[in-house]
Amino acid sequence: MLHVQLWILAGAVGLLATGAYLGRVAQTTHRETVVGLGAFALCIAALIAWRELGAYSRETVHVNAGQYFLEGTLYVRDSMDVSRFFGPTTFSKGAWVLHMLRHVMGDSSFFHALRTYVREFAYGNVVTEDFQRICEREHGRPLDWFFKEWVYGMSEPAYALDWASAAQGADTMTVVTIRQTTGAGTFTMPLDLRISRAGGDTTLVVWDSLPTQRWDLRLGRATTGVVLDPDGWVLRRMDGNR
Questions:
Q1: Any residues with CB less than 8 A from the CB of 10 and at least 6 apart, and which?
Q2: Of 150, 184, 200, which residue constitutes the final position of a domain?
Q3: Which of 115, 135, 162, 239 is the most buried (most CB within 10 A)?
Q4: Is there a single domain that holds both residue 116 and residue 57?
């Protein structure tokens, strides 16, 4: 209960602080809005929760985002469209996008990028490209693929998971197949796989970027179960029973 109350308080403080600290959103003919004021409020809330509680809760993101059907692009062309600018997609999908970006970049680069972004653009005008540029600089790699999918894109991926494990001599081969079943384009994302075997679980990260992709894993022991994205890092749907 304390965790939830702190998150709500942090979100409220973050919203006020973001509006005062970053100033107004730049409006031009070609570049209109940043990821969204609500998303940055949740960024600050995440940092406060991290500092105060020593952990950032993925479950909180699930609760916030799960209340809505997050339809449409996060990019709002007309900042005067109040229903879009302050709607559930801006706040909840915005939180999810930053949550996923953290997993892509890693904790050190992600949180450093947030602090750098606020420091460099305090009291100034901001657009989405400014935030992307800071993230790419801290990450050391292009992130245009991520912003295209999650900030400017309309949908979310749906995955179907299949796996099989069979002995191969003294070793065991586990074959994992992931299909993207959205029907609205293919997403590129790092996906966690929790592999259960006798003696404990192992978590692997695979990069999925094709409609159907397969990994042949030599793990030494027979696999008893495979779970896709067990910690909920990706805004997605699952098709099938696995």
A1: 44, 45, 48, 49, 52
A2: 150
A3: 135
A4: yes
Tell me the pLDDT tens digit for each residue of 186-223. 999 999 999 998 888 999 999 999 999 999 998 878 89
CATH number of the domain where residue 80 is located: 1.10.390.10
Place of tokens 């793990």: 219
Q: Are residues 44 and 143 in the same domain?
A: yes
Q: Do residues 202 and 172 lie in contact, with contact meaning Cβ atoms separated by under 8 Å?
A: no
Helix (H, G, I), strand (E, B) or coil at 10: helix
- Cβ atoms of 157 and 234 within 8 Å: the answer is yes
- Amino acid letter, residue 88: P
Instruction: Provide the whole-model pTM.
Output: 0.76
As a three-state string, the secondary structure of 147-211 is: HHHHCCCCCCCEEEEEEEEEEECCEEEEEEEEEECCCCCCCCEEEEEEEEECCEEEEEEEEECCC
Q: Which amino acid is at 32?
A: E
Domain edge (last residue) among 101, 121, 150: 150
Task: Determine the structural domain holding residue 234 and report its residue range.
Answer: 158-239
CATH number for position 169 = 2.60.40
The number of distinct structural domains making up the chain is: 2
Structure-model confidence comparison of residues 66 and 13, the more confident one: 66
Between CA 132 and CA 121 the distance in angstroms is: 13
What is the C-alpha to C-alpha distance for residues 60 and 7, in angstroms, rounded to an integer? 8
Would you say 173 and 216 are in contact if contact means Cβ atoms under 8 Å apart?
A: yes
Which residue, among 88, 222, 204, has the nearest Cα to 167 in the 3D structure? Answer: 222
Q: Per DSSP, what are the bridge partners of residue 130?
A: none
- Rounded to an integer, the average pLDDT of 61-75 is 56
